[in-house]
## 1
Amino acid sequence: MFRHTFLRYAVLALLAAAALLRALTAGYFGLEILAEILILAILVLALDMVAGFGGMVSLCHGALMGLGAYAYGVLCVHAGLAPLPALAGAIALTGAVAWAIGAICARAHGIFFIMATLAFGQMAYSWVFETPLLGGDDGLGGIPRPDLSLLGIDLSDSRSFVLFCLAATALAYGAAVLVLRSGLGRSLGGVMHNEQRMRALGLTVWRVKADVFGLSGMLAGLAGALAAMQVMYISPGLLAWTTSGEALVVVILGGLGTLVGPLVGAAAFVTLKHGLSGVTSHWHLVVGLILIAVVMSRANGLFGWLEARWGARLDRRLADATREDTPREATNDA
Amino acid sequence: MTTDPGFWLLQTLNALQLSMLLFLLSIGLTVIFGLMHFVNLAHGALYAAGAYVAASVSAVAGFWAGLVLAPLAVAVIGVLLYGGLIRRMRRSGPMAQVLVTFGLIFVALDLTRLIWGDIALASAMPPLLEGRLSVLGIDYPLYRLFVIGLGLVVFAALAFVLGRTQIGAMIRAGVDNDAMAACLGINVERLFFIVFCLGCALAGLAGAVAAPLLSVSPDMGLQILIPTLIVIVIGGLGSLQGAIAGSLVYGFVQTFGAVLAPGLASVLIYGLLAAILVIRPTGLFPAKG
């Protein structure tokens, strides 16, 4: 189960402040990068929910995100729905697909779970690639952004759009925390630590897994719809398994099972990518080496390392300062 | 068209040729996984390295030199990888191994681009195998028949080694229960080292064989990785029968799917994989019951 520590609040506040500051001051290119970070952040939040808190390492979240993007695009362009209902429809549809995938894969563990999700992701990819209605290889263009002129907001302006993405990311974070703190989230933690015991306690294990996977899919669908709005165009490449692989890399670089860590990872990854691609065309080499170094150092990513080093000490000092009667140990079990 | 026996023969040969290429790749990966529970996603990168070495060598010294040198060169890469990374990752979980080897894919991708450039290389076929052979009324490229033959030879050799020799018995014991095998005095760690190098060499061989058929490009390792993983998951991890069965299933479904139901072909194989994972979560011929 997920708990906020002082360090988590601090990093969260720092990230939010930095994002807000950039959103208000950055130029056009900076805003595009920020939107990319925020969309990736929602995707990795979704992935961390299942991978970090349920042990379900999914390689289909990129495909789910792509599905959300296509659902939004098709509902807008072909079905003629207004953007906001289309957004809701895309999130619901992606959630339903993710629930089904989660239910089918619930029996598989370890490498087989990874492969099964990979298979479903690739299935969606090939299907989109070969469906003429979705534009196939050419992708789908002319996707509108929501019209918020009632609130006096014009989303075609990139600054407003970035603020819209920031609000969506905050909502997604809140939703993830709520889910993980609910009974469902606690059951999921139990399933991750000891599935047999949870089954013996009378829990329908596959339902718990499928429900959380579905909720995580809804977040991925939201990320996809935002990505479609950002570039106003979708290509099937969004569904390819390398997108899922990259999202997994971001979660690991940030810190699996911390929710805040993946946000740090998303910011670091996109910044690094754009920073390096300006200097060298071989940025994959650098990212690969960093990934190998981080995994081999056995730290739980950047944020996990920070937490192991400072988190406990900060919490203890805070507890001393407020003179709590029962000195509680800082918990890192989330 | 579909009533013509020549059509069926032609597609069967095509399917066999694809299957054999995948078999050469998947056997190394599956035995490494079965023996040491090590997930090596960088196997595709080794295949790409083999193709590049073969293409470079064959441009200077001819195809056959490339075919011999590529597996050796990739085996040397395997030794370096083993000493530098794999041995230290042995005790960590599958998640860490997947990620480290995923990082290796990134590194290998850019290293090949740095060394050989972005442009795809072409590799010439040997003059001996350039022609076409008339088989039961159809003309079929000799080189593709050579690929099928090579795959069958490797399969026969591995079946003999694994089934009839002492080292094969040791490998099977290690796959079945590595702790027990170690108690019986088998040096499982050394066994793994040998199998790992052999698997790398086979990946290099597959790359060298594939080089004249496909163009040699930096992302060829990434493209072949998913089919290889599908093969070993369909077949079941760790067994020779699984690798050959999975390769044949993949080769035939993919080839006949592409000609008979073009719209469905690529969805078909993933659907099949999902169905197999649901019905038999450990594959068709898992090494362990």
## 2
Amino acid sequence: MPVMTYAEAIRDALSVALAQDPSVIVYGLGAPDPKGVFGTTLDLHKEHGSRRVFDMPTSENAMTGIGIGAALGGLRPVLTHQRLDFALLSLDQIINNAAKWRFMFGGQRSVPFTIRMILGRGWGQGPTHSQNLQALFAHIPGLCVVMPTTPDDAKGLLLTSIFGEDPVIFLEHRWLHNLSGETPQGDHRIPLGKARMMRSGGHVTVVAMSIMSIEAAHAVDHLAAQGISCDLIDLRSIRPMDWPMIEESVRRTGRLLVLDSGHETGGVAGEIVAHVATKCWGDLRAAPRRLAMPDVPEATSPALTKDYHVRAEHVAEAIAALAGREAEFASLADARKYPHDVPGDWFKGPF
Amino acid sequence: MVHSMSPELSRRLLRDMIRIRAVEETIAARYGEQKMRCPTHLSIGQEAPAAAAGAALARTDLAVSGHRAHAHYLGKGGDLNAMIAEISGKVTGCARGRGGSMHLIDESVGFMGSTAIVGGTVPVGVGLALSGSLLERNDIVCIFIGDAVMETGVFFESANFAAVHKLPIIFLCENNLYSVYSPLDVRQPQGRSLAGVAAAVGLHATAGDGNDVCASYDLIAAAAARARAGEGPQFVELATYRWREHCGPMYDNNIGYRSEAEFESWKERDPIKLFTHVLQAGDIIDQAWLDAATREITQEIDAAFAFAEASPFPDPSEAYADLYSKEVMACL
């Protein structure tokens, strides 16, 4: 199985979809430019033609409505936003039209439309280039919200989104774009609504998504060496949510920690804690916990983001506390050889 | 009013206007029964652009509209029974009762949907045209808008993209002078026309009398021909007037946002009365034709209301259906 980066896996999925079905179109600001949206759309127009892979005016709301109309007319559009924050200009079309069309017209016609939004953190992205607003989209009936963590899942979920019948908000964390992993070739699909058990263990259930699943994996592996074992559930889909996997795990462990890359209030973590509290109350052996972004925007200066994000050491500390065990976790921070505001040596900015 | 069109087309336009008016008047008359339980925006006074567009477009051409869409839906050939049932919340409605008056659809005649947010279907129409272009269909798309749409950002974004890609679209603007109660002069600068704005964006723009159904037809048919010939997006501004309140069955001149004199001057120019006189003067129709048309239309409307009345409400479980594809519904 070939090894590719997350960004390459996204590009591979788009290329497979374009080659397989002439109704697939890919567009967005900069889609065919020399940078190709962090490499995710690089040179696709050269392979599949500039009628199907094209740039657009800086008109996020209309271009979203145009995607909806194109989908109603028989196409399978993929719209890419280099930042989720830009897509906020299109909430009218996403919420009032894409999410509702199938329902409000009696189920006559669905809107197969994939909207990629790249979100992130650190390196000065600041208040309006870093927002993780999965909860906002997940609140809307009619939308699917997907947040893959690995290259394999990024490719499989993107192809399922494109060839499905529903509008999908496809959220890619910028810090994952350089992550490498084995990724199946060809038309590889992973169903929506199915989480993945990244690690198995009996003491604590850890639920995470996207970049937080990576932070959690570091923490869980670190604690496993100290005799604390966890189920680590990588959600992959935020809506629909894989409640059966979460409930089954919590019933075994009795302890729940939810990680969220979005803000705490009104967030996905809170929803999961509420669901577990109402469905699995009798199985809980400790109060559920959540670790999410603080309820303030992310600032720009590195001095102001140093302690803002949830990192592996915070996750390990919370797991140990839930398990009622002593554990060492400070070395997780010490092991990072690069500044706190980048995902690794590969990231030199600017965005 | 110069009249040069065929007798068949003339009679169709007049009949369609009379039919739209009669449907709307019946809705107004029966609105108080509390069986049509949704916000309803009547098209009385504005029948000419809808009838003209319905005749100028091919059945396979596509259309989208906004909150005041009854006339557009009927003009395009939308099913009357399904519309009355929809407004009545019945399962036989065109959206199975989920949409009501502001969400009409009849894909069998190319009426692809109307929605309640001003400007909301403008980019959807542009996207339909993009799909037609890429999939090499030869339909054109008519996007029904009102004057207020010319104040939304999404109109300019959509028209710009349509111009860049030379898409086969008619932006058909009924300028009825009011957005709810707000007159045009608090929304547009003096001396600048809507058609002039549209032309500056790159649309081929024309303007005319929206209470003259012949003039409306000629402008729309010419725009349709240009769009079909690959000349890019078109804009047609038609001046007309809403007789009744913005939303609901009543007249509202008494509340003071417009003058009785203004209303009467527009009512003098009733599009149906004007065209009836023209066709009678030209011996295209006579009183017997009018009586027969009125009788048939009344029967059709009575039957539509009887259909809605006899139709069942949707099962309560339908409130939760059709949100996603069956694959995703299975995950919920």
## 3
Amino acid sequence: MMNTKEQELQILLVEDNPADAEMTMDALRLGRQVNQVQWVKDGAEALELLLGRGDESAAAARRLRLVLLDLRLPRVDGLDVLRALRADERTRRLPVVVLTSSHEEVDVVRAYDLGANSYLVKPVESEAFMAAMVELGLYWMLLNKAPGDTK
Amino acid sequence: MTKEIHDPAILTSTAEAATGRAEVQRQEALIKTGALQDAIFNSANFSSIATDAQGVIQIFNVGAERMLGYAAADVVNKITPADISDPQEVVARAKALSAELETPITPGFEALVFKASRGIEDIYELTYIRKDGTRFPAVVSVTALRDAQDAIIGYLLIGTDNTARKQVEEEQKVLDQRLRDQQFYTRSLFESNIDALMATDPRGIISDCNRQMEVLTGCTRDELIGSPFKNYFTDQERAEASIKQVLSEKKITNYELTARSRDGKETTVSYNATTFFDRERRLQGVFAAARDITERIALDLVLKQKNAELESANNELEDFAYSVSHDLRAPLRAIDGFSRKVVTNYGERLDEEGRRLVQVVRDNAQRMGHLIDNLLAFSRMGRRELVLQPLDMDAMVTGVVDELRAAEPTRSIEFACAPLPCARGDAALMRQVWVNLLGNAVKFSRRRPSAHIEVGGRTQGGECLYWVKDDGAGFDMQYAGKLFGVFQRLHREDEFEGVGCGLAIVARILQRHHGRIWGEGKPDAGATMHFALPLAQAGDQASEART
């Protein structure tokens, strides 16, 4: 199990809806992950942050443990973000959880085909939503072992 | 011959004047002519009437008496043959002869003998009038009687009764007319047909055609007859092949060809044709009828376009429903989430009524979430590709019933399932039908201490019929029309939960299977939902799967 104090753990939240973003961060706060969340509002911003030129983005990619990705995003769509992340050596194995409103089977299939690690439909009911976010943060940040993790 | 027929009085006086060898010869001649005279005089089948030069009857033989009903004594030395002839015919004959011979001829006896008096052989038809006033047609031969100096001393009119021949002629006329009528009738049927009709010989050369064929080709009947049938079509090979096909298969139906008229106008026609034979069953050729189907084809095209438009509109609507329900979720989540946040962060500052109001907001946001979920499910139902296969309905129902029982472990529900006919359909969708119908039966019978639910089915009239009967809350038949609408409910939310999509989904699934659904019920006396699926037919999988 990771020691949270030893490393600066990062979550990137790609979400265009401020309300959803706030609720997601509320939930992560409950799971004590909030200080490690960075929020960007569209796909282009996400790609710029992770894959842009310069040391800043490389460092960001290195520190990152998880991407929470909405599918319907302005400018660059979530699936295109996923495709770009998987095509780049630096982010090829970065855990990406699709966090969306879409129940559509085609979206699920396409997301997995592009290498999503998980697909979560955001519940409308806030209790269920909060519970899901808390569990998600705990699981991916604490329980899941990613390549390169030190014991 | 005519010269040997003489007036008996003249003959007698001539005989008395004869002497010697000439006398002997005359006697012999007399015997001969006397015999001839007797024969003529006594002939019953010819009326022989001899007159003097003025036309007054001198001899009226047995035949004349028989035909005309006069005794010789009634007429001899009294009247002329004109008096026993149709007066109008006599007048007409006088007029005609006057014109023909360019000399005035008196209507009367002169008209009857004028030609003979000029030495012209004359036989004509005339109507004689009997003593009793009745008439009969006669053929009359007129000869002038001349003396030794060739002067006319009288006339002989030999007549035969023409009634029988006239009758035959009349009958013939009637038969001819009947034949003409028959031909006209047949022809008019042929001509008034709305189809272009045509007969060809076995080589495909047109032997007859009707008016419609002229319209179709822009050619006249005379031009068409004798020319090859194939000439009038855009695809001549295919036209020729049609004739060959008729000859080998005795007939063709709905054979489509495009006719091209002289002015270039093209008409799509559908041909029906058969071989035809004469009375001896010898092949005469091909009889073909072409119906103009241009309009039908145009309509088919319009129908296809409209169907495509409809389908695309449907798809758009479904896409719209999907996208709307998708986009509606996010704000709903915010309404619910932030209402909750109000309670969490500021709950202490709210009184009970304040907290209740926030809860109402949250309840409704969640309810709208359910509505959207169902709308999405309904829209998915319409877009899903059907996979048709034989369905074991008994097994399907048993599975669904087990699940429903497991979900309601505390309730007493008695299921009675009769054997069900197998059907063909999409397994997942058909299972959804049973889940929704049986689920409703379980839900609406909740208030019974012990609920009874019956499932049955049979095949009838090309369909598989199924029904689910419960003894639950039922419904008022006057609202039966609302059973299958989206978001249509017949019960209050606080009586029975639900958003009103279950039966709409069932109806949509059955519609996609070319089936139907209907229900009957009575308030508080249970409901029966029936549905029907078409009996599976061999080879229908492909066509159904596309719908």
## 4
Amino acid sequence: MTTTPDLTPWITLQGVRKGFRIGTETVPVFSGLDLTIPRGDFVAIMGPSGSGKSTLLNMLAGIDSPDGGTLQIGGARLDSMGESARSAWRAHNMGIVFQFYNLLPMLTAAENVELPLLLKPIAAGDRRARVEKVLELVGLAGRGRQYPALMSGGQQQRVGIARAIVTDPALLLCDEPTGDLDRKSADDVLDMLRFLNRELGKTIVMVTHDPQAATHARRTLHLDKGQFVEERKAA
Amino acid sequence: MGYFRLARRNAWRKPLRTVLLMLCVAIAFLIHGLTASFEQGNMAAGSASDDVLGVASAAGRGQSLPMAHLSRLAAEPGIAAVSWMTRLRGYAVRESNIVAISAVDPATMVQVSGTELGLTPVLMAALATGRDRVLVGRTLAEVQGWRVGQRITVTVPATPNKEGSRDWRFEIAGIFEGASPASDTHFVIARYDYVNALRTRGTDRVEAFVLRPAPGIKAADLARQIDALFANSAAPTRTQSEKQFLQAFMRQYADVGLIIDLVVGAAFVTLLMIVINTQMLAVRERRFEIGVLKTLGFSQGRLLALVLGETLFIFLTGGLAGLALAKLATVMIGPGLGLVLPVQTLGVALVLILGLGLATGLIPAIRAMRIPVTAAFRTR
């Protein structure tokens, strides 16, 4: 079954302002950014370095907060939450896929995937069952006992995706998920993200420099100097 | 994988560093265990009473007093209860295994020191079942591995008995606990009538009278009054409180308590600084991963618990190893050196381990908790 996005706005940014202090000066990144993303969408965000892609992703993830404006995801106002509330919100509603996988080296693949489940009241047996299930979903069945250092980049990124989806979040944020992979591994990862969007209905926001990666998204937004300058929908 | 396992995995990521930290903690608690054992075994002055007076010979330790003093003491105003005792100093099985026996009059002794020694009616009834029955202090019983009902032999070189032997045989009727964990329970309470009847030297003489002042009477005033009473007798006395007596005895060597406190204090301060510094370094090395955990949704409280759990793991493993070594030392060489490590002292040490583990982990844990995610990601 292929899902299509609901057209009701689910992620809404209105008049978002954000700047960084460098010495005594504040360098603005966004000066009134607006964005709406419906549930079930797969949006790629592209743009040159310094355009504000990572800052936008950090704000969507709740690890950075806007200086002004409103940021709402699924009815929750992230801009007015404290850090603890944002952590809890992230743990329950969001998965993040990083460019360099960011797996903990002293844990096995399965233990890395299990990490977000430690934040939920789930029995150890159920946790293990869920971990096995998602590892199978990302094509790593039977590799759970391997340590990240012994895996290829593509495999590590699949572990990263498994960790991001193990709690079954509605939203996946991907920060250059293929930036450190060869073409073949990158395509595998992108196919997987497309599967998660089309078949499981996950809303995905992906920051990327790779135009080919962006073709897997339903639409691509180009960001430049803190403003969206172009929107392209997939054919 | 639970939280504790995650903390343990973090601790073991640099095994050599963790082992060295554990060793550091183990040595500190070995020192603590041994010094606490020494204090427990040799210096019960801290728990000794100011209210119980001992009347000994003014001629010095080892000199006895005539039983005739008892009637004069009993007639003296200001005394609530008076008893008497003599001591046998011997050993069990081998000479280094020293055992002290206080031969007392049970009926009067319980009035004077029954509370401090924890002499319950059940124990006193057990002592009364036979003249050769004895009560053994808890720490001594633990060190010797003695049980109630066991027959023991104590060789007393200076006091032969009427059987022509220096071996004194007793049956353990009970074990007394003392009023508090700090009470001196490293000796045997025997019956004066039995010892007095069997000994060939010093018959009908006592090493000391012990007495409790009547309510409202100052111990120091009563001590002066008693010494004045016997000043012109054939056996003048020197009266001191139990605490004064023990403290004076220990000060013959040095202020052992102060030295012990300084040694242990220095060990712990050094330990705290080493562990705090190392854990701060560990947290600094892991800033990026802490950022990842925060991004996954780990709250500040959970990160605090994670770093504290790691420090507690190091302290518990090292501390328990140190205490185990200290206990082993007291069992193997303790009797000779008077080292005693009772369960209560181990309990206090365990609380200390947990307290120090939390205290040393707190600064690094707070630092980990406060790292902003964006700053953590910049450290890669």
